[in-house]
């Protein structure tokens, strides 16, 4: 039963990934945490993120911006090491409770964000550094770079640019964490075995997501994801905090 749930969660996460270019890790982290440990969820999603981000970056390669990708990638890498250390030594209920709070906060931020499609805001170096490093810590802990999403969506003027830049930054993070997780022992045979079982869900989810993206109103999809994140994050926090 657990494997069936994980398969369904993975499929849904990568439908969202194909549509928006992000969101797979948030969905997987929140839903997987109800049935398994973050020490399993984060490296499993990492294995799937590498090929899917490569695909999206290649598809949107004409929209890549070096000025966006390089500084954010460097800041992200600076925070990954302490985040990975916390993942290895942290208590599971603390990690899950913290993740619940983070997911709710990100959902509220996305819900209340005022989009400005016609104006690319200037980069604030201080904001960039803070967002980059904090995103690195979250990436090391949960594989989440969603703080970068809120930043890049404000500095790109179309969907193609957003997908290209966010997935390229995520890909840099993925490659670095892959070797870091191997070195620290977080990536092991158990992780690879589970990932192999769930890999068809990733492929099916990406295929469905690409088809849905061409027919469905993206704004409605985004609102549904935000609602799911806020609800699941709240439930995850309450369940983890009061049952530890």
Automatic annotation (TrEMBL):
Subcellular location: Cell membrane
Chain coiled-coil ranges: none
Protein name per the record: Probable membrane transporter protein
Keyword list, A-Z: Cell membrane, Membrane, Transmembrane, Transmembrane helix, Transport
Family: Belongs to the 4-toluene sulfonate uptake permease (TSUP) (TC 2.A.102) family.
Predominant location: membrane
Membrane topology: Multi-pass membrane protein
Recorded GO CC terms: plasma membrane
Species of the source: Anaerocolumna sedimenticola
Membrane-spanning parts: 41-58, 65-87, 93-112, 124-150, 162-184, 191-212, 224-242
């Amino acid at each position: 039963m657990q494997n069936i749930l994980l398969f369904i969660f993975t499929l849904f996460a990568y439908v969202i990934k194909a549509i928006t270019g992000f969101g797979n890790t948030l969905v997987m982290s929140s839903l997987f945490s109800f049935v398994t440990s973050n020490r399993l969820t984060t490296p499993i999603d990492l294995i799937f993120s590498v090929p899917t981000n490569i695909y999206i970056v290649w598809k949107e390669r004409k929209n890549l911006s070096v000025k966006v990708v390089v500084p954010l990638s460097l800041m992200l890498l600076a925070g990954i090491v302490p985040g990975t250390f916390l993942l290895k030594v942290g208590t599971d209920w603390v990690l899950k409770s913290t993740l619940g709070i983070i997911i709710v906060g990100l959902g509220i931020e996305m819900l209340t964000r005022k989009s400005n499609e016609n104006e690319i805001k200037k980069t604030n170096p201080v904001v960039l550094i803070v967002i980059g490093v904090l995103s690195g810590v979250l990436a090391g802990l949960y594989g989440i770079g969603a703080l970068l999403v809120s930043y890049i969506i404000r500095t790109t003027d179309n969907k193609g640019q957003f997908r290209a830049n966010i997935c390229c930054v995520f890909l840099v993070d993925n490659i670095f964490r892959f070797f870091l997780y191997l070195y620290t022992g977080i990536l092991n045979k158990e992780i690879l075995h589970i990932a192999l079982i769930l890999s068809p869900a990733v492929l099916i989810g990406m295929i469905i997501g690409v088809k849905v993206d061409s027919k469905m109103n993206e704004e409605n999809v985004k609102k549904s994801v935000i609602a799911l994140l806020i609800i699941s994050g709240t439930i995850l926090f309450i369940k983890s905090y009061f049952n530890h």
